[in-house]
Design brief:
The chain is mainly alpha-helical. The chain has one domain. Helix content is 78%, strand content 0%. It has 3 helices and no strands. The N and C termini lie far apart (58 Å).
Length: 109
């Protein structure tokens, strides 16, 4: 049983940073602010969540595990809300959505 928890833990600890790397590449390659915000929102929730979940399995069943689970729960509620608030503020300020064609505004189609 310990080997199973170690295996799950290491899988989470390896896959989590991979999601963070993919999200960082998405931030560099995506065309507009809203797409980049989406990539960052998914990355911080899923990547960091998997890393913390891996730490939960490494810690065993202790008080540290309870604290890490609380962190995961708070992240699941706060990160998407913060991403939504950021995108809503950008929309209110008039940040335009761009299509794949360079410089073409999506609202003109």
């Amino acid at each position: 049983m310990v080997a199973f928890f170690d295996t799950v833990s290491w899988i989470c600890l390896i896959v989590g940073p991979l999601f963070c790397i993919v999200g960082a590449v998405g931030l560099l390659r995506l065309p507009d602010f809203y797409s980049r915000t989406h990539a960052a929102g998914i990355t911080d929730t899923l990547g960091a969540g998997l890393v913390i979940l891996g730490l939960v399995f490494q810690a065993g069943f202790t008080l540290v595990t309870v604290k890490l689970i609380f962190i995961i729960v708070f992240m699941l509620f706060i990160n998407p809300g913060a991403t939504h608030a950021l995108a809503k503020a950008a929309y209110a300020q008039g940040v335009k959505v761009e299509t794949e064609e360079e410089g073409v505004d999506a609202t003109t189609h």
